[in-house]
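Work Package 4 report. The design task specified in the project plan requires that, given a folded chain encoded as structure tokens, an amino acid be chosen for each position. We show below one input record used in the internal validation round.
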């Protein structure tokens, strides 16, 4: 039987042109985040299955690529469930591995610890534009910092990076899980139903307010409770209509004030203060061209978030291209003691998809040069060519040396397409030092 040439569904081979862009973006990520004091770490791609299935990963826990027990540990004949067959799995994000890593090494790490982590993760998801079953994630996290200094630094670092990639006029949507819970409590939902309510609310941009209302009623929730809940969003809509000429910061201030005044003691005072401080500090210090937008429908799927949440929305993709938030209770699952933690992940694959579609070219300080060498050169002549190539490489040029093809015109066209802006030809008997 012939072997299969195509990669597994949802995974892809990366061609040289794309790999060059990926490497450029990864280098830019590392150099930019280093200027904010983040240090790079690495964790294994395989985690113990109990770490991955601790009911904090939301829908992603249904998408884990699980790994069978091996050797004497595997007893197929006695297995009654997955738990009897599986002891590990491929990580579905980098946050769970980071939490385990920090818990294991916290006595060796500075406080607070600013971590940069880049690596592939795996989800058995339905592939689509910019979404794969194996994909690169790039995370920055601040562990051990309880104040919103962490959120402000994470947003500034991420937006600075996006600005360097020439993204403009994009949105950073921001909310707080405490705001979400206060709104649900004010409406009269039971706490046990919050996750279901939030999953439906998260569809607001796709199905609209009427669709959200219908789904909530379809789930069996009391119509009066649902109407009170949707009334909050109607009130926000009226504020937006009345203040459409205001900038994002003024509008956000009025929206948050409306919710705080409406819900009163339901909303913790520090939640409102936190969002106001983050917005003011980010807008004062930002260097990239973006809008920090308060979005009370922003949910973020992970149930491990405890406070501020945020998401990147690039107009070129019309969807989320990264996000994150505060997860102060996850490390406590490992250590028994909660540790303040906040992180931001950019949608690396979606950014690469956009850059490829735009025909992005990696900027170069030096030109790429191709040496076409005729067959049959004397050893002395060939050595002179090698010496010229090495001299140029020491100056920072990229030099490709290849044999001259019979169809030289086609060969040159190919090299030009690969980014070689200068092509030098070397013929037997015509090479001198």
């Amino acid at each position: 039987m012939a072997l299969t040439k195509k990669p597994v569904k949802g995974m892809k081979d990366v061609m040289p042109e794309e790999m060059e862009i990926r490497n450029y973006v990864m280098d830019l990520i590392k150099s930019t985040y280093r200027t904010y004091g983040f240090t790079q770490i690495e964790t294994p791609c395989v985690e113990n299955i109990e770490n991955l299935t601790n009911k904090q990963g939301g829908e992603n826990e249904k998408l884990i690529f699980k790994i069978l027990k091996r050797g004497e540990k595997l007893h197929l004949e006695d297995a009654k469930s997955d738990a009897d067959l599986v002891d590990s799995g491929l990580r579905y994000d980098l946050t769970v591995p980071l939490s385990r890593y920090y818990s294991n090494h916290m006595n060796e790490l500075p406080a607070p610890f600013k971590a940069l982590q880049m690596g592939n993760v795996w989800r058995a998801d339905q592939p689509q534009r910019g979404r794969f079953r194996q994909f690169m994630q790039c995370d920055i996290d601040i562990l051990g910092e309880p104040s919103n200094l962490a959120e402000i630094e994470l947003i500034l670092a991420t937006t600075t990076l996006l600005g360097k990639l020439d993204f403009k006029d994009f949105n950073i949507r921001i909310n707080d899980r405490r705001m979400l819970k206060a709104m649900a409590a004010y409406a009269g939902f039971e706490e046990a139903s919050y996750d279901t309510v939030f999953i439906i609310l998260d569809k607001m941009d796709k199905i609209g307010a009427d669709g959200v209302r219908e789904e909530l009623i379809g789930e069996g929730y009391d119509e009066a409770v649902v109407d009170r809940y949707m009334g909050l969003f109607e009130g926000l809509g009226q504020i937006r209509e009345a203040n459409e000429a205001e900038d994002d910061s003024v509008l956000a201030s009025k929206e948050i004030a409306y919710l705080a005044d409406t819900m009163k003691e339901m909303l913790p005072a520090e939640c409102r203060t936190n969002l106001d401080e983050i917005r003011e500090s980010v807008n004062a210090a930002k260097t990239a061209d973006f809008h920090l937008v308060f979005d009370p429908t922003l949910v973020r799927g992970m149930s491990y978030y405890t406070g501020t949440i945020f998401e990147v929305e690039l107009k070129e993709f019309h969807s989320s291209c990264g996000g994150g938030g505060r997860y102060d209770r996850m490390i406590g699952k490992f250590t028994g003691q909660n540790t303040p933690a906040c992180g931001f992940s950019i949608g690396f694959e979606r950014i690469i998809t956009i850059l490829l579609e735009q025909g992005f070219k990696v900027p170069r300080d030096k030109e790429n040069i191709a040496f076409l060498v005729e067959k049959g050169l004397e050893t002395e002549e060939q050595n002179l060519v090698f010496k010229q190539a090495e001299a140029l490489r020491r100056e920072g040029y990229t030099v490709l040396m290849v044999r001259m093809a019979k169809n030289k015109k086609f060969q040159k066209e190919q090299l030009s397409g690969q980014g070689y802006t200068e092509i030098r030809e070397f013929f037997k008997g015509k090479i001198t030092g």
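The chain has a mean pLDDT of 91. Validation will be extended to a larger panel in the next phase.
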